[in-house]
Design brief:
Cell_div_FtsE, cell division, four-stranded antiparallel beta sheet, alpha/beta, cell cycle, Cell division ATP-binding protein FtsE, 27% strand, binds adenosine-5'-triphosphate
């Protein structure tokens, strides 16, 4: 599903080498934590996956597409195949929970009938059926992140990318979010999650890729924790 072959990324403006000869292969249906110290290259890895950045050299394949050769006009279509969750939720503040989730479907020509059935189903899945009419500012951090997750899931993407999704919420709620992601993963969705929280990582039995100074320094396919 995801293949990085000898990928290097140098940011031109500063000459910073963020990734060097980076090779990784992630299969369909895997749950992968990506950990490592600040500045290691985790966000760069995510930006390359989302095709926000292009590598300086190497090849990247996601869902059978070569991201290096992907034409600029095709990038928005590629992004629609991804479900993305960020640390800062990125909800639309003027829209209620229902509309924040429905919006992700409305921009992709899904019929009104399908939206009416799909949005309540997804809100139920993340435990927010009772909050459909609430505005984001009236929700807790954990609830806002569940709305963001619902929005990422509603298009049924084969891949979810979560960049520090628990960075702004309490430890108990962080566990719940990863638990929810794990349930989604059991249904076949591939999950790539960047995190700083090694306590959280050690609670779950998922593959752990540790990046440092732009390269993978360990890849624990069974279970893992890392020391910073
Ligand atoms: N747009 C950019 N222009 C120049 N240098 C950048 C840019 N983005 C990141 N870098 C540099 O690339 C390196 C890797 O950064 P990256 O953001 O990928 O690390 P990270 O592991 O996500 O860190 P953190 O955990 O602090 O978010 C760092 O040295 C950073 O300063």
């Amino acid at each position: 599903m995801i293949e990085f072959v000898n990928v290097s990324k140098v940011y031109k403006a500063t000459g910073t080498r963020a990734l060097s000869n980076f090779n990784v292969s992630i299969d369909r249906g895997e749950f992968v934590f990506v950990v490592g110290p600040s500045g290691a290259g985790k966000s760069t890895f995510i930006k390359l996956l989302m095709r926000e950045e292009k590598p300086t050299s190497g090849e990247i394949y996601v869902n059978g597409q070569n991201l290096v050769r992907l034409k600029r006009r095709k990038v928005p279509y590629y992004r629609r195949t991804l479900g993305v969750v960020f640390q800062d939720f990125r909800l639309i503040p003027t829209m209620n929970v229902y509309d924040n989730v429905a919006f992700a479907l409305r921009v992709t020509n899904v019929s009104a009938k399908d939206i009416r059935s799909r949005v309540p189903y997804i809100l139920g899945l993340v435990g927010l059926s009772g909050k459909a009419k609430s505005l984001p500012e009236h929700l807790s951090g954990g609830e806002q992140q569940r709305v963001a997750l619902a929005r990422a899931l509603v298009n049924n993407p084969p891949l979810i990318i979560a960049d520090e999704p628990t960075g702004n919420i309490d430890p108990d709620l962080s566990f719940e979010i990863v638990d929810l992601l794990s349930e989604i993963n059991k249904c076949g969705t591939t999950i790539v999650m960047v995190t700083h929280e090694h306590n959280l990582v050690s609670e779950f039995d998922h593959r752990v890729i540790t990046i440092d100074e732009g390269t993978i320094i360990s890849d624990d396919r069974n279970r893992g924790y890392y020391d910073e």
